Amino acid sequence: MRFWLALFLCVVSAGVRAADAVDLTPYVQQDVYEWVKISPDGKHFAVTKPLEDRTALLILRREDHAFTAKIMGGADSVVDDFWWANDERVVVSLSRKQGSRDEPVSIGELHAVNVDGKYSMLLASPYGVREHAGLVTEVRNTLEQMVYMLDPLAGDTRNVLVSAVPVTNDPFVRVEKLDIYNRNRIRIAEVPVRRASFISDQAGEVRFAVGANVDNISKLYYRDARGEDWRLINDAGSSGQRRFPLGFSADGKLAYLQVEQASGPDSIVSWDPVTGKEVELLRDAVVDPYQILYDLDGKTPIGASFMHERISNRFFDEAARTPRLYRSLEKVFVHDAVRMTSATADGRYVLLFVWGDRNNGDYFLFDTEQKKADRIFSRREWFVPTQVPPSRLVNFRARDGMQLHGYLTEPLTAANGPRPMVLLPHGGPFTVFDQWRFDDDAQLLAAAGYAVLRVNYRGSGNYGRAFTDAGSREWGARMQDDLADATQWAIKEGVADRERICIYGASYGGYAALMGAARDPGLYRCAAGYVGVYDLELMHRDTSQGSGSGRTWAADWLGDRRELGARSPVNLADRIKVPVFLAAGGRDERAPIEHSKRMERALKRAGVPVETLYYPNEGHGFYTEPHRREYYARLLGFLGQHLGGATAK
Fold first, then answer.
1. In this structure, which topology does domain 9-26+386-643 adopt according to CATH?
2. Which of 15, 337, 423, 511 has the highest count of CB atoms within 10 angstroms of its CB?
3. β-pairing, 197-200 with 185-194?
4. pTM attached to this predicted model
């Protein structure tokens, strides 16, 4: 059953204003399912199910969607990824995510379960595992190794390849073969570089390793076969570019690499390990490869998707079977992007993920013999794509001439003149980027009557390494200029009413919102920061503690700690002349609540009106539905007071 959500806006003389209060329910309730994969025999689906403070892995029978098994961790645990190891058994990797805006951090823990719920087992954990009389699994209190899936080893129904990572700063990693029924592990390979990740060939032999030592300089190693010596084939310190292995051709003769360039976006090349010959296969003029596309075996790279105006798929060989299948599907799903997530071992059934800027995601099961696709799951069926606004690509130049890109989301109803606007800088900030996809904040704010501008300022990902590097040490400087220039562009284009613009963001976006209010006090009517960082000296200290790579990162990307006070909003409160709204969680480890409380105290000392919403039991973004509902109600109320948009029901 589909629930219809109508977003009706009416036009008033001052711009576009929502006629009715916004119902928050569609925006705060969890997706039905997130990710889905079909079993090799086609009899079951493995699906991830978001819950309030964790994500579970469920097994559903394909014929009737009946629940047969599950794996679920404790609070703040999320399913990082999962794999069908054979027809009957699923292996699951768990991560830790402390808040809705947090980036999951894999904890190096693997679980497994059969489709009927039997033999549920903790395969590996940094705390170790042991059993008493084969009945009870216990967790030790001494840290051992974090273990990550490397290769489910097609054709081997009992073993998988894993990376074993010692629990220490900047560790050396080794590859092991893990028995998914009894936990036995056999050492397979080690590599002479820290923090390595690996790529195996079609036979399950580990051939590539890429990592970095405490200097954070990427090194790529290759070996011809098991037992052979590793040889260094790229050192970013001397070559000036990082290279990342993607996989091997079906016949194993060629390897595929993603290669950074001195300027512009990354390319994908083929590399012959025997001759060293390299051929460029794919490169976009503007953006990096967004996702690698694989053949029906889920392992052989066949192309890549690129995200710019929307998603475009490109292939190494357009005449091959799977690329031709993609092209036929693209003719059906003309308004959305389509990606194959998994397939049965015989290739008859293919699971498709279909999504776009107006569609949060649907799953279709495609029968390659009958040429028929049936929708089997929808992430949020209560949103009807035709009744939510699209997001269109925008391009403009910063004051120093750098080309910038972003996405503009406007209410469906036309406006008589410029609208009130919210500038929405993304978090991160580095390598993260705003995307052509269904964005919750943008859609909610558009429903309240606002134009919403998301900008990929310098430092963002997707536009090549040089573009990301251009944001190095530019917190509160050129990165901030890009946001101000984007706002000026929206005013000149007649998109935004210059008298009714606010800046709002989360995490780094919260920092950018408060810095925007401080550096450009006449540009914004208000500023809102959600789980933000506002004291860069404090952030530098926290980031530098512990690992050598953390200290290197802080020096490379934040800069000299002694110079960061002048770029910290907490020290610039006297320059802020507009009302501020701050929200934060007491359990936030990424942006500790102390940042928000220091900012609040500084604003009050400066006489700046400030509203706050703190939850001591929330992390980096609020988890519980009542708290998220209260947050968005307060946010819409704050924006409505200063811009005139709709409030929440």
1. Rossmann fold (3.40.50)
2. 511
3. unpaired
4. 0.90
